[in-house]
Amino acid sequence: MRSAVPPRAGTSAPVAYDASVTPPPAQRERLVALDVFRGLTIAGMLLVNNPGTWGAIYPPLRHATWHGWTPTDLIFPFFLFIVGITTHLSLAARRARGDDEGALLRQVLRRGGIIILLGLLLSGFPFIPTYGFDPSTMRFPGVLQRIGVAYIAAGLLTLRTSTRTQVVIATALLLGYWAVMTLIPVPGTGALGAAALSTPDGSIAAWLDRTVLGNHLWRQSKTWDPEGILSTLPAIGTAMLGVFAGRWIASPRPLMDRIAALFAVGALAMVAGLIWNWWFPINKNLWTSSYVLFTAGMACVTIATCIWLIDVQRITGWTKPFVIFGMNPILAFVGSGMMARLMGSIIKVERDGQSVSLQSAIYDSAFASWLSPMNASLLYAVCFVALWFVILGVLYKRKVFLKV
Fold first, then answer.
1. b/e map of 159-178 (b: 16 or more CB within 10 Å)?
2. Is the bond preceding 14 in cis, omega lying within 30 degrees of 0?
3. What SS3 state is found at 185?
4. Which domain holds residue 258?
5. Within 10 A of 268 (CB to CB), how many other CB atoms are there?
6. Overall number of domains in the chain
7. Of 39, 68, 80, 180, which one's alpha carbon is 20 to 30 angstroms from that of 285?
8. What is the largest CA-CA distance in the chain?
């Protein structure tokens, strides 16, 4: 996943690039571009998940209240999209070196199972009743759980079906989800699904979450879950679109042809998502089909930009921090989540005669004491990301990577 950038001597002319030829190093460089994209996504996830205070956040760093989107709403689907890309690249590489279908199947199930288990461990951490752990209300859905399920589904489809069948299945997931969410009456209310989309707990997806999961839902809502059962189906569609992108990126076509197609298809998908938004609103919590198309298109354009900057223009001075984040994504997500839980609710310190969380004490004394609330909250989040950059940087130098 790592490759060196050809050195430049002083102020010499830029290296000439022949767009009709794809030399072997370019394949490795493209993988670096994918690490950069994944690293950008992980760093963004840490930034928006760890403000100094949830009461003072700049609007672009918030999720949309319900319908609509902000830059923050791009982070999760971007990660699922890159999961799809690397699913294809990983399975194709293992096939090329001679692994049989049984070994590939075991890899998919093992990796997906570990990701789901890590998500459940993070949900229950630190598993001490004193700090709020209750098995009867422990949340079952979650970000990592959805990633694990989507990875298994995308991996099995990639292994067991043709490209044509995969396209049909991905299309059926998006159209079928739209039909279920808008055309079927919500049980218990009789309201048509389309009329119930405007309220978080009114949709058929929320009804299914309450019926199946009961008390094991997101604590902030208790009546629906943003990573619920039904909305995981279009999330699998996001991963499958990533698989298609990965297949295209790994194709033997000239590099500029691949970049141009990623830009073009990405732009078309964004437009299609915006048009579908008129009937099925873009909504991250519902993971609507319009949201899938729009965010997948945005991911294609972003990846194409990364490849063009890194592989064609050789502008790489900015990439190292994001490569470091991209090489240890699971460790960054799980480790930062546990750290935030420890600092925000478990570790207590004395401040002005009161027992407060370590996070609150640091924020109040080091940031809020001299900055406006929003700037203080943002700087705290930036420092949190910087701390994890240092942690991951040390591990990177020692070649320590958490692989699942």
1. eeeeeeebeebbeebbeebb
2. no
3. strand
4. 63-315
5. 13
6. 1
7. 39
8. 72
